[in-house]
Structure prediction request, 415 residues.
Amino acid sequence: MKVEDLILVSVDDHVIEPPHLFEGRLPAKYADAAPCFITREDGTMAWVYGDTEVINPAVQAVVGRPKSEWGFDPVCLEEMRPGVWDIDARVKDMDVNGMLGSMCFPSFVRFSGALFLDNGDRDQSAAMVRAYNDWHIDEWAGTYPGRFIPLAIPILWDPELAAAEIRRVAKKGCHAVTFTSNPYDLGLPSLYTDHWDPFWKACEDEGTVVCMHIGSNSKAPTTSPDAPVELIYSLSPIGSFEAASDLVWSKLFLKFPRLRVALSEGGIGWVPYFLERIDYLYKHTQHWSGMSLDGRLPSELFNENVITCFIDDEVGIENRHRLNLDNITWECDYPHSDTMWPHSPEESIRYMGKLSDDEINKITHLNAMKHFQYDPFVHVSREDATVAALRNRVPDWDTSIKATSHLRPDATVAS
Prediction:
């Protein structure tokens, strides 16, 4: 397949939420309590909810800046490409990258919406979650039909309310929810309890994919306080390895066999070894541990129920025969530092070019369409969805690298 003929749908991008997010979306009694976007005295931006101030809500939103500035997360809107937070500019940034579809994870509310778990009256915070989801579905994903896979945040503190919200947003066409990779790390019951059953049941009933993004347990992997940042990034897939183990050994997929979980931004190169390992040890431990998977191998449960996701993973692609090809999906990770924007097609074909067209199509868009109940071709013809066709829509869109450090406020910025 030629690069210009690719159809790319990313199942992992990010949105830096715009200041107007909650306007007109809350019951009157909660309107004044909504999270508020502010500019601090030192010129930096923040979101404030109750007594909590999220002082750098744009972590790693560095796309379009020179790599020498990537160590400095933007601290004001002026430092970011408009596509980071503005929906019209975002679609043009997608076009120039030859990317048809995108699913965008939240930022200031944290990956699993944990801001509302830790702060605020419960009824009030539930209203905030619903308002956030309405903004994301109706405005962010709804302004350009066919271009976005809507993604909800959960009501973490009450599985019955969480289930009701899953059913509510499903009626609005949303069949993905971001969830923590380890609720125990957030002070919640673990995956080994039946606490979450109403939530899992709702997701299974609605065909809603549970997306467990790396870092969604709000606990950075490290070995010691003096380890460099490279160590944390080296260990980032460990969170997905841990989540995968919990999912298999919790017997979640035996109780809810139609449930699907995506290990977002987890990569795929580690998965073949993981599958080999869990099958090997299960054969050696089940006789004395009491563990029973009802005649199934743990690798079978994983391959059937877990959606794997990668940005750049040549090793994983080479070992695709050891994975379930129908569950492998591609990611762009705009606007974070791992993204290959605006050259994602060229970088992807570099290692996927050796695959058959059928394999490429599954990985780049068909698997995402199937799992997330997303059909962009209702709105965009296949001929207009290719890399070449999308780029032709924005021939003069500026993708030049621009330094923005001169816009940085003089005051010391908290990290």
Observations:
- The first strand starts at residue 8 and ends at 14.
- The beta strands are 8-14, 36-39, 45-49, 52-54, 99-105, 176-179, 209-212, 261-263, 306-310, 328-330.
- Residues 3-17+60-407 form a domain with the TIM Barrel fold (CATH 3.20.20.140).
- Confidence is low (pLDDT under 50) at residues 411-415.
